[in-house]
Here is the input.
Amino acid sequence: MRPLDAQPWLHARVFATIPHVAVIPNPGKQFALSGVLAVMKPTLAPAPFHIFTPRREFLRRLAYGSALFAVPGLFAEQLALTPRQTEGPFYPDKLPLDTDNDLIVINDGLNPAVGEITWLSGRLLTTAGSPIRNATIEIWQCDSTGVYLHAGTGGNKAKRDTNFQCFGRFVTGSTGEYVFRTIKPVPYPGRAPHIHLAVKRRGQKELVSQCYIKGHAGNEKDSVWKRISDSRQRENVTIDFAPLAGSKVGELTARWDIVMGVTPEHG
Here is the structure.
């Protein structure tokens, strides 16, 4: 894996063109421009605001998909629940100062994290396909060296990528959508590549799960993945990490719709 190439769009990155997308506030890092939510990273010299076509196309499709799945009665059958899985021992024991949905650059840092940049997105839904809004989604994962943001982490802590946030949050919008910019997960001894996730509502964790890379050989040896006995639930958490069309820096896109057994009025 190689560091993300230095690109002008690092100075201003568009996260969503979807109206009412909610992001945990972080002063000085986010701002709104003509209905477009973006993130600014300070630089030594002024940089132009760039919206690159591949990113815009990706977010257009995300908005389209969110609108499509917001249509009542779209699903002919109940969606499979996202399975509950272990939280594991490495939920951050001390949260980073930056907890937004961009895990690649911390606060006003100029150096991006090492890894295969991935746009992880999807919707939070009920089994009937209705969106759940105003829920906080948290993700956490190890860095490209297999080290977590935790004092008891395995791996070589001296080699931890301090430019990687390891943890992020996002509040779902009116169609249940969420989006993170992170890295493709990597394996470490005893585990297949995975990303941890928690859904919080009213301050309480209502779901804890993990997602995996579809087709990765390590899945069949991973004890947590193998404990998912329902094939539909296993399919829900085993997702594609595919090249982002038009990206010039090798970005990936991964889609994970999270399904909970609640009614939308509780959301």
